[in-house]
Specification:
With 217 residues, the chain is α/β, with parallel strands linked by helices. It has eight helices and eleven strands. It has a five-stranded parallel β-sheet, with helices on both faces. A four-stranded antiparallel β-sheet has the order 6-7-8-9, with helices on one face. It has a two-stranded antiparallel sheet with strand order 10-11. It is elongated and about 55 Å long.
């Protein structure tokens, strides 16, 4: 999934981003309100983790803008203000969830994953297609009962293909959803990752290349 972490404390933002990337998420960072709004307009995020007290444009206004602008991104407000009144206020601004600081990182990951499921058509907690089984929560993939050792990007690509339920997913969408903004759109990154994934999935082949359209499972 694609996540934007908006936090003016740069060390905390980098720490959170590093942890989320280890969980297989594509993460971009913004350290103030204007930068957050700019990134949200350009990129299709599943979840925005939003600090409330931001410079430039306050987090409350960022939340209002995202909620009122038709963004499909779900907003998790992350702030040191953890009273009931603060939580009610944050949710009233359009936030989808609210997590006070300090927080347990495992809870943050669980809440992000729950919100991401709500950002798209409802999917089962475990994706199954034939003998292929992918468990996003446990980060495991098996084929015919045998576990497959996938890299985080291979896992992300396979999850997107399985979530499409037989539909075609373009290389552009895979790049946007599984990589962060540092990825070079003119590189062969997606093609190379799909090729490695094909080999690891084994025979018979499961991923079909649809000419000038993308990939289908």
């Amino acid at each position: 999934m694609r996540v934007l972490v908006v936090e003016d404390h740069e060390e905390l933002a980098e720490t959170v981003a590093a942890g989320l990337r280890r969980e297989g998420m594509a993460v971009d960072l913004a350290f103030d309100g204007p930068n957050a709004l700019e990134r949200a307009q350009v990129n299709g995020y599943d979840v925005v983790v939003l600090d409330r007290d931001l410079p430039g444009v306050h987090g409350d206004q960022v939340c209002r803008t995202l909620a009122g602008g038709g963004s499909r991104a779900r907003v998790l407000m992350l702030t040191a203000s953890g009273t009931v009144a603060d939580r009610v206020s944050g949710l009233g601004l359009g936030a989808d969830d609210y997590l006070p600081k300090p927080f347990a990182f495992t809870e943050l990951v669980a809440r992000i994953r729950a919100l991401a499921r709500r950002a798209q058509p409802a999917l089962p907690p475990v994706l199954v297609r034939g003998e292929l089984r992918l468990d996003p929560a446990r980060r495991t993939v098996t084929r015919a009962g045998c576990q497959l050792p996938l890299s985080p990007k291979e896992f992300a690509v396979l999850e997107l293909l399985m979530a499409a339920q037989g539909g075609v997913v373009s290389a552009e969408e895979l790049l946007e959803r599984a990589w962060d903004e540092a990825a070079d759109p003119f590189s062969q990154t997606v093609k190379v990752t799909v090729s490695r994934l094909r080999r690891k999935l084994g025979e018979p082949p499961l991923i079909e290349t649809v000419e000038r359209a993308g990939y289908r499972l």
